[in-house]
Amino acid sequence: MLPDLKLAIRLQEVDNRLADLAREISALPKHIAEIEKKLIAHERKLEADRAALAANQKERRKCDTDIQAQEQKISKLKDQMLEAKSNDVYRAFQNEIEFCQKEIRKSEDRILELMGESEPLDKNVKAAEAALKVEKAQVEAESQQARERTAVDKQASADLQKERAEIVAAITPAVYQRYARVCKMRRGIGVAEAVDGRCSVCNMAMRLQFFQELRRGDQVMACESCLRILYYNPPQAVEDVAGSTAVQG
């Protein structure tokens, strides 16, 4: 195979890997941003549940305070009833005591409602706190893995960029220009293998004479349909494979 073809094939491999690395480097921060966004949403939900629980407990304390105030008022009213000079005054005290008792019953009923509401709220808060602790640890672990993976990818990309520059310097300028031009036209794929008389990328059949010239491998040729640089790998004979295995053994 011509040196230029070998270089073009390797250049395509390098460019493919560089594209993969670029996508991965770009995707990792997006992935972390997504899981952190979910974490923030869960934190806000926990804050809302905590606020609801705190409001529930605050209202219960207020109800307790109101009950105590009404009981103290009733106690004073009963003392004042003993000094009532007339039935009208006595009944007025009695009515006021009944009103205070009604207010106490209202507060007691409300306390029962609040107790029923607080139990699921308290369970939600405790469950959310436990889940959030686990989620935070997972997010931190994934973030650390992403940072480490990004560092590895960036180093691999730098190494490949260096190799790419060496290939570009070694390949014939006209061949490289053809490769670069076709890559720009064909979504980054400038080299294709000829398999069974067809371009392996665009799948167009080759003319017999063209394919015969390609098989000789004495010139750089391009697909007549998609213009990608073509190369041909002759199939290995069974005897060659067996002989190669024997030598390695």
> Gyration radius, to the nearest Å?
41 Å
Counting DSSP E segments of at least 2 residues, the number of strands comes to 4
Tell me the CATH architecture of the largest domain: Orthogonal Bundle
Instruction: Estimate the strand proportion.
Output: under 5%
Strand and helix order: HHHEEHEEH
Between the first and last Cα atoms, what is the distance in angstroms?
27 Å
Domain tally: 2
Description of the structure:
This protein is 79% helix and 5% strand. Strands 2-1-4-3 form a 4-stranded mixed β-sheet. It contains 5 helices and 4 strands, in the order H-H-H-E-E-H-E-E-H. The chain is rod-shaped and about 130 Å long. The chain folds into 2 domains: 3-169, Helix Hairpins (Orthogonal Bundle); 173-248, no CATH class. Helix 1 (3-81) packs antiparallel against helix 2 (87-170). With 249 residues, it is mainly alpha-helical. A hairpin with a 6-residue loop joins strand 3 and strand 4. The model is unreliable at 238-249 (pLDDT under 50).
Structure summarized in a few sentences:
With 249 residues, the chain is mainly alpha-helical. It has two domains: 3-169, Helix Hairpins (Orthogonal Bundle), CATH 1.10.287; 173-248, no CATH class.
Key features of this structure:
249 residues; single chain; disordered C terminus; 79% helix; rod-shaped; Helix Hairpins; four-stranded mixed β-sheet; mainly alpha
